[in-house]
Structure formats: C-alpha cells, structure tokens
Amino acid sequence: MARLIHTGSVIVDQVMHIREVPEPGADIVATHAYATAGGAMNSLVAAAKDGMEVIYCGLVGTGMNASVIAQALDNAGIALNYPRLTDADNGYCVALVDDTGERTFITSIGVEGRFAFEHMDAIPLRETDLVYVSGYSLATPENAQGLAQWLPIIPASVKVFVDPSPLVTELPAELYQPLLDRADVFSANRREAEAIAEDVKALALMLRPGAWAVVRNGAEPTLACQNIDGIAGEVIEVPTFPQTPIDTNGAGDVHAGVMLAGLGRGLDVPEAVRRANAASAIKVTRSGPTAAPTTAEIDEFLAARVTA
Asked: What is the pTM of this model?
C-alpha cells in the first residue's frame, strides 16, 4: 500500500460548542468546550484509521500546543519526518460549533508556518507515495514559496492530492496556480470550487491531463470529473449518505484522509470518493474533529447500504 506524505499543518483546535454565532460585541457562554490536536491531524488520523501508512512532514515545535500535537501523533502511530523545533510553539484554532453542526474558525499560525522549500526538498519520496497538499499552507510566504518551487519537481509517479481549504476565497488566485498545475486529484467543497471555476468540468480543465476534480456538496452527490487529454470527461455523481449532523468539524478532512487511503490501496477515484462519503457520514454523527471511523466501520456502513 502507498504511503501518505502529509505536508499540511497540525495545530491545536480549541473547540467551543455554542447555541449560535453571537452578534459583534456580544458575550456568550459555551455549552461545552475542549482542546485537541486538529488541522491536518484530522486527515492524518482518518487515513491511518483506514489502514494507510502515514508520515507527517510538517513542523512540530515546543510548548503547550506542540506537546498536545506530539502526543496525539504518537497515540495515532503517525511518524514525524523532522525533529521537533525548540524555539517556537505550534499555532491554534478557535472552532465555534453551533447547534446546527456548522462551524466557524479563527486561526493563529505558529511554527508550522515556517515549513519551507528546504523541508519539502528533504522529504524522501518513493514512486508509489501520495502527497497531500493543503491550501492552508499558502497562508505564509515560506509555505507558499516552498510549494511553488517543490511541486514542479516532484516525480511524475508520485500522486499529489490537493485540498484548497476555505482560504481559496481569501488569497490571490496566483498563489493557487502551482497547486492546480501539479494536482492529480483536486478535492474541494462547493464553496471552494466555485471560487476557482464555474463548475466541476471547468475545474477539471484547469488541471493537467489525467487529473480529477472532485467537488463535495453536503448531502447532495459528490461530483467527480477527469481531464482526459484536455477534454472534460463525464461528470460522475457519487451518492452521499445524509445524516442528522452533531458536529461537522473535520468532516472534509475525514473525507480527504479516507479518499487517500482508498487511492493508496488501488481504488479508482469514484470508488475512493464513495468510501470517503461514507466515512464523512459516520463522522458528522460524532463529536470531535478527529472522530474518524475505522476501516471496519466504513465497510460495515457500506455493506448495510448495499443490502438495505
């Protein structure tokens, strides 16, 4: 099975469950709250729980947040590619989860933002590896410039999976161009995709030949379209499994991690998306951003839908 080389940023999620997002200037009390390793941790754990070997290639520092992160990675059996840095802590995100299950993020960047070309170029890639790249990495100059240098020199046999992140609506389009140019799979939610292209076919045509555009749209079918030698292929609608959500925080990351695990074990893109849809459906019924299902739980969930 292929390895997942993850270049995203693990930070600490400070999650607060609230009735609703307050008006500016208001003061409310959370119904409950907790802190946990989040950000890239969500997709790392999802891939690992679905049986994939995972290597975290981002940076982990020293301090309160970094200690939470290092412990979480160790508990999940996820290897660190670099020694921990001693001069700075990792960042954190305040995640507000309202009674509808919707979430709102406010992020402070730490040592993970220093991830630069020197770190990327030192990653020992194998030809069967899958590389995960997040649009969040474009939020700092070191990360953005490093990706622009590194992505074009990744060997052609290595598959690159790009998750543009919500920042696609905030950052200049030129920062995303290196990600579009090298992506083998570009997976976005509808809001993110519409910030880049008119529809999934137009998005596929912005990628290189052979690459796939995948667009998630909540309970609606996930759309997948391949660039076939410069022509947009058939749009494939992959069914989802609508649930009454408890917590949607991390659902997109779980989708990415399980999709990568599926691709790593040889599934084609539509098959991997179907497993990822099932994993996301399970996740939203659980509280916590890293509440990803195991391989057995996904298999059981899908088997029940086939026989129902």
From this structure: 0.90
